[in-house]
Amino acid sequence: MTQRIVIEVQMRSRKRRAKAMKIAAVADGVNSVAFNEENRDQIVVIGHGVDPVGLALSLRKKVGHATLLNVEELVEQAEDE
After folding, report:
1. Which of 19, 47, 60, 80 is the most buried if burial means most Cβ atoms within 10 Å?
2. What pLDDT score does 71 carry?
3. 63: CB partners within 8 A, 6+ apart
4. What does the pLDDT look like over 17-55, one tens digit per residue?
């Protein structure tokens, strides 16, 4: 079950952005971490079996205010040949 998680974090400086990226990257099951192109305060995490609530809590604890915006399951499309 691959998930796409979007979390909004108040990041006022590059240092906070880097810290938030490190926290999200070391979480269990994370495959990809990126910032949303439209809103730089949103982190997009893609992974298998990631705990979204635990990730949001750790970001709140170490970086600042964090809001869990979206959690969706990504469906992998199999190619039929």
Report:
1. 47
2. 95
3. 9, 10, 11, 16, 19, 20, 23
4. 999 999 999 999 999 999 988 888 899 999 999 999 999
Which candidate, 13, 18, 33, 27, places its Cα nearest to that of 57? 27
**How many residues make up the chain in this entry?**
81
Please say whether the beta carbons of 24 and 55 come within 8 A: yes
**Interatomic CA distance for residues 76 and 81, integer angstroms:** 16
Residue where the block lists tokens 């205010």: 65
Element (H, E) at 33: strand 30-35
The first and second tokens of residue 22, run together, are 């490190």
Cβ atoms of 7 and 68 within 8 Å: the answer is yes
Summarize pLDDT for 63-80 with one digit per residue, the tens: 989 999 999 998 876 555
